[in-house]
Write a structure and sequence with these properties.
The complex is a heterodimer. By secondary structure, chain A is mostly helical. Chain A folds into 2 domains: about 1-45, no CATH class; about 50-260, MetI-like fold. Helices cover about 70% and strands about 0% of the residues of chain A. In chain A, helix 1 (about 1-20) runs antiparallel to helix 13, helix 3 packs across helix 7 and helix 10 (about 180-195) crosses helix 13. Chain A is elongated, with a radius of gyration of 22 Å. Chain B is mainly α. Chain B is about 70% helix and about 0% strand. Classes of the chains: A mainly alpha, B mainly alpha. At the A-B interface, helix 1, helix 3, helix 4, helix 5 and helix 6 of A face helix 1, helix 3, helix 4, helix 5 and helix 6 of B.
């Protein structure tokens, strides 16, 4: 229980501080009382300031980038997983190994050289530049392939007899049967984008394409920090993905289990 | 085998298009692999070895790099950090997994609460903890309320790295715990029942049953955790910029500073090449662990 407290306490404090006037955040800390944690004079003023400022734009950018990544990334990862699980072609094992190992090379380790390539293609400060790196994900490909392997082949045989092509088998049989795996993979793609900091820092420095992570780092870097506002912003940046996780939590846990513990 | 074995693909004489179909299904992902992973890696290696300039490939950039105390210092810092943070995170994750694998009331809720910080961006936790660790912040208020002296945390060369470890662990532990709980679910309960009949206490059951049978997920977590900790960047960049006195200058921060603050593209490329080589070695181990024996057949 202490553990859960440890994991939630900083967030509770952040949310509470987001509801205080900026000047009050450090005022009730010593001596410690209940007002150290709870806002003494709760106010929504920080939210008003926040939503009328550049943070609203950053939030919209983040949601758009993460959403696009999930949709396009799922398409890309699931088609690859389908080919690797269902189709027969020469060199399949080699392709599988290359693909998963390459995608397991953590993106951040090659972000710096990739950003100079992207600038060469004028992808800096574009949504395309932000979205592209999140699309291919080794864990997602691996997870979907494992799931597809478990779908009985007789289903596609029957569909073939009925004249369905490979694309039809993929869209009408495999995708509908794979909802849990697709949700798990989608969460992996989403978390990747929502967590991203180094890449947006490198490729999208212009304010109009700022994502939430950058906006928050900028708050902390200002000389005159309004802590109330900053905490309100961090609360949003934390609560949006947490709510999504809360909703789909068991799929996420199940998908991690698939990649980590199977004999 | 959980997935029911490999089924026979259809043999209906309609397989002519299969190779072509595979190419079509794989093309986007393969393109992404080449453009987003292999090309930049190659690019970094070419720049690092000085290929494409008038001279042939050389190790000059690497020699220069290893002669620079700032770079070797960052390697040492990263090594020290890795030696501390990985065992700490895994021990905590394991303890939590054992704790939360029991049939306690509301255990699902507690597990969710511990897992949730996974979704919180590292920048966010860095900013929150950064304020919490200020001299007038709540952590020091708590310390003083318990009768301890005020601590400098991030502003002291002696404590800054430890503070970064605390911040990073806050996110990591719940994530790694999830893998371990999944592994524990695979351990047959008969073992524990048999041990209980033999009179083994909880501590013995943990050492003799849980730990040996958890070897595989534990190895996976160790490898994956090591890789992710090599690449920690956001907390360092936001909170300390590598300081004070280089005490938190982890290798990602070193590469970033080299490339953008110092404009040393070749040095950054050489450092990236070293990092990628190390990471690929570790990831290859991870990949082997992810595959079951029957996966390549």
């Amino acid at each position: 229980m202490l553990a859960a407290l440890y994991s939630m306490m900083p967030l509770i404090w952040a949310v509470a501080s987001g509801l205080r006037p900026g000047a009050e955040i450090f005022r009730y800390l010593s001596p410690l009382t209940i007002w150290s944690l709870l806002p003494r004079h709760p106010t929504l003023a920080n939210l008003h300031v926040l939503w009328s400022g550049p943070f609203a734009r950053a939030m919209a950018n983040s949601i758009f980038v993460a959403g696009t990544t999930v949709v396009v990334g799922l398409l890309l990862c699931s088609t690859a997983a389908f080919a690797l699980a269902v189709l027969r072609f020469p060199g399949k094992n080699a392709v599988f190994a290359i693909m998963v190992v390459s995608f397991l090379i953590p993106f951040d380790s090659i972000a710096v050289p990739l950003s100079s390539l992207f600038r060469g293609f004028h992808l800096d400060n574009t949504y395309t530049g932000l979205v592209l790196p999140g699309l291919g994900n080794g864990l997602a490909v691996f997870l979907l392939r494992q799931f597809f392997l478990g779908i009985p082949g007789v289903l596609s045989e029957a569909a073939m007899v009925d004249g369905l092509g490979w694309w039809g088998i993929y869209t009408r049989i495999y995708l509908p049967l794979s909802r849990p795996a697709l949700i798990g993979a989608g969460l992996i793609l989403f978390v990747f984008q929502w967590q991203a900091y180094l890449w947006p820092l490198l490729i999208a420095p212009a304010p109009n394409v700022h994502v939430v992570a950058i906006a928050i780092a900028n708050f902390a870097g200002e000389f005159q920090v309004d802590y109330g506002e900053m905490f309100a912003a961090t609360s949003f940046a934390a609560l949006v993905p947490m709510l999504i996780m809360l909703f789909f939590q068991r799929y996420f846990a199940a998908s991690l289990a698939t990649s980590g513990s199977k004999e | 085998m959980a997935d029911g074995g490999r089924r026979r693909p259809p043999r209906l004489g309609r397989r002519q298009g299969e190779w072509l179909a595979a190419a079509g299904f794989l093309a986007p992902a393969l393109l992404a692999v080449v453009v987003l992973r292999l090309w930049p890696t190659l690019q970094a290696a070419l720049v690092a070895f000085g290929v494409g300039l008038s001279k042939g490939p050389s190790l000059a950039n690497f020699r220069f790099l290893f002669a620079d105390p700032e770079f070797t210092g960052s390697l040492l810092t990263t090594a020290l950090y890795s030696l501390l943070v990985n065992p700490i995170q895994i021990a905590l994750a394991l303890a939590l997994a054992v704790l939360l694998n029991r049939a306690l009331p509301g255990v699902g809720l507690w597990r969710t609460l511990v897992l949730l910080p996974v979704a919180v961006p590292q920048v966010v936790s860095a900013v929150i903890w950064g304020v919490a660790m200020r001299p007038d912040g709540p952590l020091n208020a708590l310390f003083q309320a318990c009768g301890f002296a005020q601590q400098p945390f991030l502003t002291s060369p002696r404590q800054a790295l430890g503070s970064i470890i605390i911040i990073v662990s806050w996110i990591g532990v719940g994530y790694w715990m999830t893998f371990l709980i999944a592994g524990m679910k695979d351990i047959p309960t008969q073992y524990y029942e048999a041990a209980a009949i033999d009179g083994a206490n909880a501590w013995q059951r943990f050492w003799k049953i849980t730990l040996p049978l958890l070897r595989r997920p534990l190895t996976f977590v160790l490898v994956a955790d090591t890789v992710s900790n090599f690449l920690v960047f956001a907390p360092v960049q936001v909170l300390t910029k590598g300081g004070p006195q280089g005490s938190t200058n982890l290798v990602m921060n070193e590469i970033f500073t080299r490339a953008f603050d110092q404009g040393d593209t070749a040095g950054a490329a050489a450092a990236t090449t070293i990092l990628v080589l190390v990471v690929v070695a570790v990831v290859t181990i991870q990949f082997r662990l992810m595959l079951r024996k029957d996966d390549f057949s």
